[in-house]
Write a structure and sequence with these properties.
Number of strands of chain A: 6
Order of helices and strands of chain A: HHEEEEEHEHHHHHH
Strand content of chain A: 15-25%
Oligomer: homodimer
Radius of gyration of chain A: 18 Å
CATH superfamily of one domain in chain A: Jelly Rolls
Structural class of chain A: alpha+beta
Shape of chain A: globular
Distance between the termini of chain A: 50 Å
CATH topology of one domain in chain A: Jelly Rolls
Largest interface: A-B, 38 and 38 residues
Chain lengths: ~190, ~190
DNA sequence: CGCGACGTTGATTTGCCTCAACGATTGTGG
DNA sequence: CCACAATCGTTGAGGCAAATCAACGTCGCG
């Protein structure tokens, strides 16, 4: 079995022919820090598995402020899901930026939908992933409603220790929904505890 | 075809035997206003399709404040998705309350998972729904990051005109993540525009 | 080395919350 | 069917967490 499939699908046992079908659709890409995988306004067709490195999805609002929606490191998938999964015109509302040199594997949603039908086992896995992601998104929403910025930061550090290393403070701030200055003050407070 | 399947699945064409399989798993329930479908701490096994009426999912935080995560009217599904789809112990973190007399159809996740395997077409529909829900959740998250309480309220009224009728102001406030008093002031401002 | 990007700190502002009081509406028992 | 209580919505005063605006030190890279 091709190494990357083992990595992506862990101990899932596809048949040889299923593996071949999937492999045919995966397109390897290498990115360097600072490179953009997607810019707002582009049409969104693909999503991407992160093999190495780190990327983020962020939205720029009318006042020019950035809002980070997602970080992705090894083992995660990234895209502009609002466009890709929404019922709109599939134009990106967000940007995807490489923040640490990366090797990724892309697959188009069109190809993926075909694979889902050809390979029932893949459907099952996708459903599980979607369900889990949805639960996780709900949980994060709850946290943002009930917790203070300081508590959210602490949870972030615990939850994503591997990400904290690769990213700038202002990336984290924009992910937590606070300003750089506020994060700076929070870090100071925590350090003095 | 049984009326309720037509309602739930619109123009999807299941075979007779597929329909029978699904129908066998759906359990009809009637609820009256004020009744609880689920309380925090219960174990979560089912999700529910709303035929008539209105329900909401809400979380109560440590300080006793309520946070409404979801409203559901005709055509929507409701559950505690954090518990049902999460990897935890399946104990409800939220409550589900009937806020307008309702007729609903429940199905257990266990039964549903079985149906997904037995009926590939159902898998496809479920995937589409999950994808769309995920996109929608992301969009809402963006809105809560970028918009003021007033703008969020305006979007709420536009997006859920049918819900606004059935619910108390403080339900809406807790959905928008603001206090009753703030919502009251916002409504006053908008009225005077 | 020098410049720009990044992080920190201070002063001030602001949107929303909290607390409190008081009408309006709803619903319920007599 | 009315009276009264409970619930709900509104309004005001004051407070607070985080935003904004501004200045400055520092680090890393060309």
């Amino acid at each position: 079995m091709h190494q990357i499939l083992t990595e992506i699908f862990k101990d899932t046992s596809f048949t040889e022919s299923e593996e071949a079908l999937i492999l045919k659709k995966l397109k390897k890409k290498t990115l360097i820090k600072g490179e953009f995988l997607l810019k707002a306004g582009d049409s969104v067709r693909d999503f991407f598995y992160i093999h190495t490195g780190c990327l983020r999805t962020f939205f720029v609002d009318d006042s020019g402020k950035e809002h980070t929606l997602q970080f992705a490191v090894k083992g995660w998938w990234i895209s502009d899901y609002i466009a890709l999964f929404g019922r709109g015109d599939k134009l990106a509302v967000s940007n995807i930026e490489c923040i640490k040199d990366a090797i990724i594997y892309g697959v188009s949603k069109k190809d993926f939908d075909t694979l889902l039908i050809e390979i029932p086992l893949l459907s099952q896995i996708h459903i599980q992933n979607m369900e889990y992601s949805y639960a996780h998104a709900q949980k994060r929403k709850l946290e943002s409603l009930t917790l203070s910025a300081k508590e959210r930061y602490k949870i972030f550090v615990q939850t994503y220790p591997s990400i904290e290393q690769s990213v700038k403070n202002y990336h984290i701030a924009s992910f937590l929904g606070i300003t750089n200055e506020s994060l700076s003050r929070i870090r100071k407070e925590i350090a003095s505890e």
